[in-house]
TrEMBL record:
InterPro entries reported in the protein's UniProt record: KH_dom (IPR004087), KH_dom_type_1 (IPR004088), KH_dom_type_1_sf (IPR036612), KH_Vigilin_N (IPR057778)
Lineage, opening ranks: Eukaryota, Fungi, Dikarya, Basidiomycota, Agaricomycotina
Residues of the K Homology domain: 163-250, 466-551, 552-629, 638-720, 724-809, 814-885, 889-966, 970-1055, 1179-1245
Biased composition regions of type Polar residues, renumbered to the chain: 25-78, 208-217
Pfam families named among the record's database cross-references: KH_1 (PF00013), KH_Vigilin (PF24668)
Protein's name in the database: K Homology domain-containing protein
SMART domains assigned to the protein according to its UniProt record, in alphabetical order: KH
Listed Basic residues bias regions: 688-697
Length: 1251
């Protein structure tokens, strides 16, 4: 027999290309076998075990022999130097069948040799292959310098040459989450282990499973619903993934789901009540009242036991439960559902079943055992009346009432109203019930007072809605265009016509748009219903014109056999999403199962309805027809791929944080994305290499052709936008960063939104950046402590940079600081009531003030920190130290005064106290007066009045208060009988005679019928008066001597009424004064001047009254609008206009006659009138200051008008802050107007400054 060589043996066993079983003994390094991805001899799912691939012979290990010298055995011969070779990794695997029929990207058929050549070039490996003729299997031997390169080559060969198959695994719903893994980790790992050559598609849970559509299980036990998981890719790798998924499923099959169907409605509450008793850790019980079924999920054995227990309980209830019907108002039914029903069944062992809310009727059915029902009636009635309920019917026919309901819900008016009444809840009647009864009702539940208040406000609103509602129909596809492109125009509808627009939710596809004349923005004399309808007519006309111009919408139905609908839809609707496009201006409904509007005709089984702009409809029809044609010709290749490159710098933004952007694209279009570049291959040996600037990233998109092309278009569009992006690092001291960022980042957010940039400040510590990276987020840029990164479009970065640097300069100028200490007890005075004092100092100086309140209050010191420019800091410090010095001279004295005298001592609005403080030499400013006298509050000693202030002032106040208290203690109430017919004459016109009497005698006189008549108490001499008629009894309250004097005068009037019928006419003092008519309005101050004179007994009669009412010319409308790209603290856009005062006033003089009880009061009135005339003459001009926004107005007005009052006093002007516009009116001299304007703008700029 002829001898056989190793090559002959390889050919006989079809093992050409297999590794040499007898390697050369001269190899300096042995071959290193590659580590395998799987144990037991499997490489990537391919059998590589010794059993399947035995060695060709069991050759014993040979000991290496010394190679002879090239020059003989002598020691002096030249020897070859040893060569250090890198380790060699290898892998051997066999493909049972090689598929070479699939075309490459250039539509040319590929060969195994070309595939091997490409893989070797790409992975830097050496590949040898041998085929077995009998079985058709092909064995590949791969060698490489790294294990990673060998594994990559194995995956490439398997993916390129294995037959592509599609496998389906039906997975129970409960296992889907485990198969996908946290954030898709398990699926991602499967794809990576197979070289991303395997595609695993899991449909959404709402996608019907074709295998389950035809059968509906009738049995109580369900084999859990399944979803078909599709695995596509090379056969061997697909089988590996399928095996892994089946293994995951097998670990979850011990669970079972069983149902008890058709449970009687009245028994479900009893099952629900017993659920907590039956439920354990091994099972979960859920009850569906809608489907009338009980579902139990959990461990199979525990589920079976629970099912038996529930069935037995249901059978027992069916035989023992009885019912009784009671009648309760429908609005009270809501108090017997939900938690209330659970409480009742626990308390009474009876279930309460009200009439369905969709059905009219007042019947409530009570179910329970006969011995329990009678005892349950009381608790049910009590629960039904546990809260006050009231039903409010929306007026008008059903259509009008429905419009009101739409406005109340869409405008959130009712929600806002109820937020002010936390105990009240509101419930609209269901649409079904409203249609049956022909009306819409609102049920209110809560406390009676709050419910009635809510109903009253709602009724007022509904009245204002009369003539204010209208519905128009506009194709719902145009709504998005109107809201987007015409958004500013729609906003003008509200500004010009006071009309709001409410578009329906896009998902409803409803064409009805509700127009509402806003009832919440009406003046007290609002427009009539006719005027409202006119506004609605104008808006409707413009809106319909805009809708006509917005889009040429049309509908088209095309016929497509239902069997091809799946091709049009795509997996999970991905193909349909690609057809509709990113703007979603199309509506496509497929087949008879499509959900259409109530008025639309149903679609046929083979119909596809397309609606939208004409051009888009035509495009969609062409694409659908092409998809169907391709499906019919079986030419659709879900393996279609498109490849292109982008710069590496954009990859992170395209992929998104944690792959979010790429995953979103995959889900929307159903494509596979693969990002790779040359660096990935060059790093196969484990050595990191620096990425070259401007290097490219290769992107491969695999999927349906239309979807892949759409994904490519979207990525390139995003890259084009990113190409314009730039970044710049600004050097800014860290101490200024917090001011630039603002509270909760509001200043930096404003800049980001204004310029469309991203501004990044450095982290506090480097550990924070590392922590964020460890959590899986993208690490922050590595910035130094004084660096700020601005990234975005070139124009936006330049604008943001300029504004930031401007703000930095401002902060540097205003970042001077100063610290000093003040006594801790001076802090309350420095702050002032409600912060008034400290806020005034801040407004006047523009300084930021921080006070450390943690100091010891017992004689300790508190630290005050100031921040601003040097001049302002000095002024603020002097003001604070001045207040502190006043506190140092303070003393505290307590005066005991009975609580019953406190009200009289304080006076109306504190007037008596203010006069008392002024007489004692105290301050006249109400804010400074506030802390001098403190009357007791709840929880304090009722009689102690505490005085705190300078010693001299406190001493005088104490003496004055003690005198007043002594005077009050001596006061008594005496009565005098005066015929009721004389009371009017005693009181006099406007109470003048009564005021004169009280002023002369120092008493208070109360006539029957006055508000305080009963509160002064009973007369001390009531017994002496006998049976006096209560209508004639006049009470006199005051010191005993004064009371006697007043009673004497009243008695004298009673004795001679004829003689004293007009007691004051003869004694009145009169004085005539000539006053220019044009000053009348300025002097009268809307009647305040006259009322002030009457307070001390002086009346005025005018010979002539101005015919023209007071009016101010409106400011000029030719102002320039503020630029939107200017900073918020700029004065640009502020309008200032000064016009002469009295320019249109009437000329001439009028005679004013002053009448008073004595010369002293007349002289006092003359003095005040002269001062008023001088002020009116000085008010020579009127200034109109129009700001860009009203946000600064509260700061200008101040707490209770304190700031504007201060400005009036300091500038000598009359300042009126507009309530409905942005204009402030200032009246005074020209110089005073300028001073007032500067002071107001200073406050406004401090309020609006962005830093």
């Amino acid at each position: 027999m002829a001898s056989l060589t190793a090559a002959d043996l390889q050919r006989r066993h079809a093992l050409e290309g297999a590794p040499d079983p007898f390697p050369s003994l001269n190899d300096s390094e042995p071959t290193v076998q590659s580590k395998q991805a799987y144990t037991n001899g499997h490489v990537n799912g391919l059998d590589n075990s010794e059993v399947s691939f035995p060695s060709l012979s069991a050759t014993p290990t040979l000991k290496p022999t010394k190679a002879p010298s090239s020059w003989g055995s002598g020691s002096n011969g030249i020897r070859k130097s040893a060569v250090n070779q890198a380790p060699v990794f290898s892998s051997i695997f066999t493909l049972p069948r090689v598929e070479l029929t699939r075309a490459g990207h250039d539509d040319k058929h590929i060969t195994m040799g070309s595939v091997m050549k490409d893989v070797m070039a790409k992975t830097k490996t050496k590949i040898e292959a041998s085929s077995q003729r009998t079985t058709g299997a092909t064995t590949f031997h791969i060698k490489g310098d790294s294990e990673r390169a060998v594994q990559a080559a194995t995956k490439h060969i398997t993916a390129a040459l294995s037959p592509h198959v599609t496998l389906v695994v039906n997975a129970p719903l409960s296992t889907i989450g485990t198969i996908i893994g946290p954030k898709g980790a398990t699926l991602k790992k499967m794809r990576e282990e197979t070289g991303n050559s395997i595609r695993v598609d899991i449909p959404r849970r709402d996608t019907p499973n074709p295998s389950e559509e035809s059968t509906v299980p009738d049995q109580d036990e369900d084999e859990e619903q399944t979803l078909p998981i599709t695995i596509s890719g090379p056969a061997s790798l697909a089988e590996v993934v399928r095996t892994e998924i089946i293994a995951i499923i097998s670990t979850k099959k011990s669970r079972s789901t069983q149902r008890i169907r058709d449970v009687p409605t009245h028994i479900l509450p009893f099952v629900s009540f017993k659920k907590t008793e039956l439920q354990t850790e091994d099972i979960a019980i859920s009850i569906s009242e809608k489907d009338r079924e009980v579902v139990i999920i959990g461990e199979r054995e525990a589920v079976a036991l629970a099912i038996e227990a529930v069935k037995a309980a249901i059978k027992d209830w069916e035989s023992t439960l009885e019912s009784i019907d009671i009648s309760l108002p429908k609005r009270q039914h809501r108090l017997l559902t939900g938690k209330a029903a659970e409480e009742l069944i626990a308390q009474t062992h009876c279930a309460v079943i009200p009439t369905k809310f969709d059905e009219p009727g007042d019947i409530v059915t009570l179910w329970g055992k006969s011995e329990d029902i009678s005892g349950a009636l009381g608790p049910v009635y009590q629960k039904a009346k546990s809260q006050y309920t009231q039903q409010y019917a929306l007026p008008g026919p059903l259509a009008y009432a429905t419009q009101i309901q739409t406005y109340l819900t869409r405008s959130a008016y009712l929600k806002t109203l109820l937020s002010s009444y936390p105990s009240v809840t509101a419930h609209f009647s269901s649409p079904t019930l409203a249609a049956k009864v022909g009306a819409v009702h609102v049920d209110f539940i809560g406390e009676k007072a709050q419910v009635e208040a809510v109903v009253k406000q709602l009724a007022d609103l509904v009245r204002n809605l009369e003539g204010a509602l209208r519905e128009i129909e506009i194709d719902w596809l145009v709504h998005k265009v109107l809201i987007g492109k015409a958004g500013k125009k729609i906003q003008q509808f509200q500004e010009q016509h006071n009309v709001l627009l409410f578009f329906p939710p896009e998902s409803s596809e409803s064409p009805v748009v509700l127009l509402v004349h806003d009832p919440l923005n009406l003046s007290p004399t609002g427009p009539s219903p006719v005027q409202k309808q006119a506004h609605l007519d104008d808006v409707q006309k413009e809106l319909l014109k805009m809708a006509t111009d917005a889009a040429d919408v049309k509908s088209e139905i095309i016929k497509v056999e239902s069997k091809w609908h799946s091709a049009v839809l795509g997996k999970s609707g991905t193909t349909l999403n690609a057809i509709i496009g990113e703007d979603k201006v199309l509506s496509i409904k497929v087949g008879s199962q499509a959900k259409l509007g109530p008025s639309a005709l149903p679609l046929g089984q083979d119909d596809i309805l397309i609606r939208g702009p004409s051009s888009e409809v035509d495009r969609a029809v062409r694409e659908i027809n092409k998809i169907v044609e391709d499906a019919k010709n079986d030419e659709i290749d879900n393996g279609y791929s498109v490849e292109f490159e982008i710069n590496r710098e954009y990859v992170g933004r395209v992929v998104g944080s944690g792959g979010a952007a790429a995953n979103k694209l995959r889900e929307a279009l159903g494509v596979a994305l693969d990002f790779s570049d040359d660096n990935d291959e060059k790093e196969a040996d484990g050595k990191s290499k620096k990425k070259k600037t401007g290097s490219k990233c290769h992107i491969k998109i695999t999927g349906r052709k239309e979807n892949a092309e759409e994904a490519k278009r979207r990525i390139l569009a995003q890259v084009e936008k990113l190409a314009d992006e730039t970044s710049e690092i600004l050097k800014i001291p860290r101490s200024i960063h917090s001011s630039l960022i603002g509270t909760s980042g509001k200043y930096v957010i404003r800049l980001e939104e204004k310029y469309s940039v991203k501004i990044t400040f450095p982290r506090e510590t480097s550990e924070e950046n590392g922590l964020e990276e460890a959590k899986g987020g993208r690490p922050r840029e590595a910035l130094k402590s004084d660096e700020v990164l601005v990234r975005g479009g070139k124009k936006g970065v330049a604008g943001a940079k300029a504004e930031i640097l401007e703000a930095v300069e401002y902060e540097k100028d205003n970042s001077n600081t100063a610290k000093f200490t003040v006594p801790a007890r001076a802090i309350p005075r420095i702050l002032g009531k409600g912060g008034n004092s400290i806020n005034t100092i801040k407004d006047e100086t523009g300084v930021q003030i921080d006070i450390d309140k943690a100091a010891d209050s017992d004689g300790g010191l508190a630290t005050v920190s100031l921040r601003g420019n040097k001049k302002a800091i000095t002024a603020a410090k002097d003001a604070i130290l001045a207040i502190s010095a006043e506190v140092s001279d303070e003393t505290i004295v307590v005066v005991n005064i009975e609580a019953k005298y406190h009200r009289n001592i304080i006076g109306s609005g504190g007037q008596h106290l203010r006069e008392l403080i002024a007489q004692a030499g105290g301050p006249t400013d109400p804010r400074a007066q506030a802390g001098l006298i403190h009357f007791p509050r709840d929880g304090e000693s009722a009689d102690e009045v505490r005085l705190r202030g300078p010693k001299a002032v406190v001493t005088k106040l104490k003496a004055a208060l003690e005198n007043i208290a002594a005077d009050h203690r001596d006061r008594i109430v005496l009565g005098v009988a005066v015929p009721a017919s004389q009371h009017r004459a005693l009181i006099g016109r406007g109470g003048q005679n009564l005021n004169d009497l009280q002023s002369r005698t120092g008493v208070t006189v109360q006539f029957p019928g006055s508000r305080s008549y009963s509160s002064v108490g009973e007369p001390k001499n009531l017994a002496e008066l006998g049976d006096v008629d209560p209508a004639d009894l006049v009470k006199v309250f005051g010191p005993s001597a004064s009371c006697a004097k007043a009673i004497a005068e009243l008695s004298a009037h009673k004795a001679a009424p004829e003689r004293r019928e007009h007691p004051t006419k003869a004694s009145l003092v009169t004085k005539a004064v000539s006053v220019p008519i044009k000053y009348h309005h300025a002097i009268s101050q809307q009647g305040n001047f006259m009322r002030n004179l009457r307070s001390f007994g002086v009346n005025i009669e005018r010979s002539q009254i101005p015919e023209k009412p007071l009016s101010r010319p409106p400011p000029s409308t030719n102002k320039t609008a503020a630029r939107i790209d200017e900073p918020a603290d700029s004065e640009d856009g502020v309008e200032w206009q000064v016009v002469p005062n009295y320019q249109d006033a009437e000329e001439g003089d009028a005679e004013w006659i002053l009448k008073g009880r004595d010369e002293e009061s007349i002289e006092r009135a003359l003095g005040q009138l002269a001062e008023a005339i001088d002020r009116a003459k000085a008010a020579s001009h009127v200034g109109y200051l129009t700001l860009t926004q009203r946000s600064a107005f509260p700061k200008i007005v101040g707490t209770k008008g304190a700031t504007v009052a201060r400005l009036r006093a300091e500038t000598g002007t009359d300042i009126t802050v507009g309530r409905e516009d942005k204009t402030i009116i200032i009246i005074g001299t020209e110089q005073a107007l300028r001073n007032a304007k500067e002071a107001i703008l200073k406050i406004a700029n401090n309020n609006n400054r962005g830093w």
